[in-house]
Amino acid sequence: MGLHVIVGAGAVGRTTATLLAGRGERVRIVSRRGTGPEHPQVERVAADATDAQRLAGLAAGAQALYNCASPLYHRWFTDWPPLDAALLAAAERSGAVLATVSNVYGYGPTDAPITPQTPIAARHPKLRLRAEMWAEAKRLHEAGRIRATEVRGSDYIEANSIFSFVLREPLLAGRRAYVPAPLDVPHSWTSITDVARTVIAVAGDPRGHGEAWLVPTNPPQTIRQLATRFTQVAGVPAPKLTSVPYPVLWLAGLGSTMLRELRTTRYQFTRPFVLDSTLTERTFGLAPTDLDNALKSLVEQ
Predict the structure, then answer these.
(1) CA–CA distance from 73 to each of 15, 51, 59, 76, 102 (Å)?
(2) Considering the entire predicted model, what is its pTM?
(3) CATH number of the domain at 3-154+191-214, please?
(4) Nearest to 87 by CA among 61, 50, 58, 113
(5) How many helices (DSSP H) and strands (DSSP E) are in the chain?
(6) Mind listing the pLDDT tens digit for each residue in 48-96?
(7) Residue 149 pairs with which residues in a beta bridge?
(8) Domain boundaries in the chain?
């Protein structure tokens, strides 16, 4: 029974903590407010994770240090640099494997499914930020100063995604949902459970160290297909959907931080955006969560 330290008590951090605790591992989950799942194996700690000395102390003796933090999107340039620096320092001082939950923004627009061979080609600074964080972690890994790994998933099904933000409530209520994206473009949707399962797997397996891995993800679904499947799982009327034209979205962004930020990643919904997670699945014996089960958990939130 080892110690696992998780930074971030959002949906990914909580799920990772719950899975580890269910295996009998000791878990310490660190957040500003000291929140997290209630479980006898989980210690919830209120701390500022940008304090490298404090974080290193909390990670002392840990097998792995999981970066499950999720700063608000519009604060990335402010919040990520000090947090990333503290995580790297804590990993080096403690010797814990630094296992980061990231995303696929760094690839930028693509014309083919994303694989481990897809180059990091994004040009927008915000899209490149997380990729640059991984480049520094990999550099330190290759220098022998830390052990690092990373997992990358697409838009989540259960939380913190366009689906959970703008579709869940209207669909459950039988109302029309107004979607800030086209409705009929194939898109990969990743289960948070699979993100947690994958980051635990690669952190604990030396084959996972020094590389970034795509989270096992089901075949792509358009927004219309996923919404229809969601209503079937929920036992509610078929979805009524309206795609919001981009000029309307742009104007709405003038008064909404979230909608304004969606402009940056709209390309992921205007052309097929697909993950090929075959290598991760074969290497670690993982498979994506059944899509209906993932949607059922979204219904039950």
Answers:
(1) 21, 21, 26, 5, 13
(2) 0.95
(3) 3.40.50.720
(4) 50
(5) 13, 11
(6) 999 999 999 999 999 999 999 999 988 999 999 999 999 999 999 999 9
(7) 99
(8) 3-154+191-214
